[in-house]
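haha ok so turns out i had the wrong file open the whole time. this is the CORRECT one, sorry everyone. sequence first:
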Amino acid sequence: MNVIVLLAGSSEPIESKGVSYQRLLSEIKGKPLIQHVLSSLKPIEKGHHIFVHMLKDDIDSSHLDDIVTLLIPTVKICVVNKLTKGAACTALLSIESINNDSPLVIINGDQVVDADLPSLLKKFEKSGWDGGIVTFESVHPRWSYVKLNDENLVEEVAEKRPISKNATAGIYYFKHGSLFVEAAMKMIEKRASVNGLYYICPTYNELILKQKKIGIYPIERSQYFPLSSLNEIDDFRKHISR
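then structure:
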């Protein structure tokens, strides 16, 4: 299985003692945030190929590549020279490694999901589904959403629009990496962007149009920790300090 971790998004630097740092270097309980993020991937480190996509600016300024390699020695770093037109475009930078029959998982890097990752991936693999999405309950328009049919399979996805109460938690499974590549290319060809950006979740609409089966793995909202703001980082700090 190939696993892509997306750490190449834009973020405001955080200042500490007069020095500016990338947000993922904020320390919680003596560890930078990026260490907490990657620790959640430790259970799937063995037997999987992990690609971490990160901005060249973050590598040059904060040596994030060295940090990631120390934490996961087998990782492959994909250097992103500049901000792309969205997560789907960033993931496609590994096209030579993922455009094949191997399963693919794409994970947003600015989050921690407190769930049994090996179990949920095993469920996806054994389900026979062509794709799988981890979800939680919400109605806020900041998330992407999936709508289910009577068979509890995904019949539609939408970015930044609550078409159901099933928000996505930034973990996306594809039975074959080639399915994602084909769907992402088709989405881009159609210019199906949201606010000028191409996201991962809408690629499933292209698979649904081809009668592919997409399922979900629901988790509790309390298991999902986005880390895109200082308030969210504080929420995560409180969680692990309990």
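The chain has one domain: 2-235.
again sry for the mixup
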